[in-house]
Write a structure and sequence with these properties.
With about 375 residues, this protein is mainly β. It contains one helix and 28 strands.
């Protein structure tokens, strides 16, 4: 019996008995279909213009070109990829700035105490270009990725320290990163129409200064088996990394990336898909495809950043669409978790949960103005499962 049949038989044949949430991420049966969300219908827009399920509330944490409340630090333009880093007394939210170096590209942080109050804010990376997404590491650093030709990965230190470029991780149009502590690798997406999916194998886990860059090899289908192959020249010049290995599978505009429980998910904006790579058995498949929703209107378009929770739920942000964050449950149901209204010329970026799982941070990159200077960073609090 395959994974799909096993999951369905377990749920259907046990009179409502379901697998524990912690076991679900490895048992996704793709692709997800429309359903009522676990938190119910969206309510009317709140004072911040955000539609949320009952019991959830939002607040504005920071606005571009304004001092972060309670600090003198001016929040950066075009907030993009983000993550939450625990610091022992609370947590830090890190955020990239998707503008050029001359306009202040790089990354910043906001420090919170255990009650969620802001206690500080500062710059952690400067002088870089179009820092789009990235990913946090198990040793509590933030990988900030440049989304430009021959872009680089910078390892930043939200808990203190000077950012360092990591050229061994390849030079290409970087998007997101996701660390896999089991296999001791970092997965990387590439934002090109014929972009590739990569993994970086550090020579020493916890030290990204040296290692091997590999590319995902598979057929042209949307599911099947895969292998990895070394990229001969991670420097990407004169031949781009995506063109160096025969049989490397192309993905149309790689975006967000998330690892959990022997599975890595990543999104591709060119075809509105969420891909699922099952690392335990070396197979891949679709977790979501807007063209394969069997009934109703596809809720998720313009797929972008992605994150997950301990319950196994995936949260996928929209670049455009109807400015939603959509939720994909482990039993392959997709619904809209929240919607930002009145900001049709923006995109949702940087979703990330606190360690306790009761707060979700994210940004509207261009806010109500539609300009990079109009970015707004939010926090949603509520009874997340």
């Amino acid at each position: 019996m395959d994974r799909r049949s096993l999951l369905r038989a377990t749920v259907a044949g046990a009179g409502g008995l379901a697998l524990p949430f912690t076991a679900w991420p490895a048992a996704y049966a793709a692709p997800a279909q429309n359903a009522t969300g676990p938190y119910g219908a969206l309510q009317s827009a709140d004072a911040n213009g955000i539609r949320l399920p009952a019991g959830f509330t939002s607040q504005v944490v920071a606005r571009s070109r304004q001092a972060v409340p309670g600090t003198s630090y001016v929040w950066h333009d075009a907030p993009d990829g983000g993550a939450v880093i625990p610091n022992g007394t609370g947590w830090i939210y890190v955020s990239n700035s998707e503008v050029s170096s001359s306009a202040g590209g790089g990354a910043s942080r906001i420090v919170f105490n255990a009650s969620g109050q802001v206690t500080g804010a500062s710059r952690i990376l400067s002088g870089t270009n179009q820092n789009c997404a990235g990913g946090k590491t198990p040793w509590n650093t933030w990988l900030s990725c440049e989304e430009v030709s021959l872009g680089r990965v910078y390892e930043t230190y939200p808990l203190g320290g000077t950012a360092v470029v990591r050229p061994a991780m390849g030079r290409f149009k970087h998007e997101a990163a996701a660390a896999d502590p089991v296999r001791q690798v970092v997965y990387l997406t590439e934002d090109e129409t014929d972009g590739k999916f990569y993994r970086f194998i550090p020579t020493t886990w916890g030290n990204l200064s040296a290692g091997r860059l590999q590319v995902f090899r598979a057929g042209s289908a949307t599911s099947g088996s895969f292998t990895w192959a070394d990229v001969p020249d991670p420097d990407g010049s004169p031949t781009a990394t995506r063109n160096q290995v025969s049989g490397a599978k192309s993905f149309n505009g790689g975006e967000g990336c998330h690892y959990a429980n022997n599975t890595v998910w990543f999104t591709t904006k060119g075809d509105n898909r969420v891909w699922q790579v099952n690392l335990a058995n070396n197979t891949y498949e679709l977790a979501y495809d807007d063209s394969l929703v069997s009934s109703g209107t596809a809720p998720l378009t313009g797929v972008d950043n992605v994150t997950g929770t301990a319950s196994g739920d995936l949260y996928v942000a929209e670049d455009g669409g109807t400015m939603d964050i959509c939720l994909i449950t482990p039993d392959d149901k997709i619904s809209v978790f929240l919607r930002v209204t009145g900001q049709g010329s923006s995109e949702i970026t940087g979703p990330a949960f606190t360690p306790a799982g009761n707060r979700l941070y994210f940004s509207s990159q261009r806010g109500t103005s539609g300009a990079s200077s109009g970015g707004i960073t939010y926090c949603v609090t509520g009874p997340f499962r």
